[in-house]
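cron nightly-structures :: item 1 of 1
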Amino acid sequence: MKKEELIRNLSASEKLIRAEYGLNQEQMAGMLGMSRKSLVETEKGRRTLSWTECIALCALFADSRLFADSADTHILEQIRNIAYSDTEISYPSTMGGKVWWRDIEKTGGYRIQQNVISSHYRILNPKDERIASSFDMDEIREIFRNMTREK
């Protein structure tokens, strides 16, 4: 998903999330760091959320039923994938998946692994740093192919 598409989707979903959590416009605007007037304009479809407002929405309401029901990838992972897409970033090392993970595919030191409990997938680089994760194997394979093709 592209950044602009995610911004449009989140802007269209903001009012539903606000209702899900029982917040009024003033409360939601304050939580997102925006004016009530800007929130009203967003809810009427006259403006979209800024990238910073989208990040705040996702961070504060990551457990929203709306987010859980609408995507195979956790909303914060979607935000990270987009934010990191044009940046070379140093990820924290994992333990390499020695206990709860099984290797699915390996190429050039990169690995796709699946969690034996939750069944979600992740990609580790040669330093055992997590690059991406998702419940959608097709999405993981596409990221994996693009990464291993570039290296």
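cron nightly-structures :: done
Strands lie at 101-107, 110-115, 121-124, 130-134.
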